[in-house]
Amino acid sequence: MVWTAHGIEAVQLPLPEEDKTRMRLRQRYRSLAEAAPPAVVRAAIDGVIALLEGKPIDLSGVVLALDSVGEFDRRVYDIARTIPPRQHDDLWRHRQTPWRR
Question: Does the model's pTM come out above 0.85?
Fold first, then answer.
């Protein structure tokens, strides 16, 4: 997970090898420095892990750093964050058309 003083900036799900995960993050964030996450970031990491394990976790309280995000994507984040836990699966299952930018 990549964070700034403004919040979570990026999440990279683990690749099969830890070195490849680090390399992927460094390709996008050249000045990246590894550090122990502060408590709020650790809580976000734990929440994502729990969500991926199928637990109904509400991540709407996680602060996101959206400074470099375009207006359209920002609106998508805002809407997605209003969807209650466990309903994301329903949206994926019932979608009629592919997502397009």
Answer: no
The answer to the question of residue 51 being in a domain is yes
CA dihedral (83, 54, 21, 34) in degrees, to 10, reads 80
Residue-range definition of the domain harbouring residue 89: 2-94
The CA-atom distances, in angstroms, between 92 and each of 52, 59, 88, 89 are: 15, 18, 6, 5
55-95 confidence digits (pLDDT tens): 888 888 999 999 888 999 999 888 888 887 766 555 555 55
Long-range contacts of 61-67 (CB under 8 A, 24+ apart): 62/7, 62/8, 63/6, 63/7, 63/8, 64/7, 64/8, 64/9, 65/3, 65/4, 65/6, 65/7, 65/8, 65/9, 66/7, 67/6
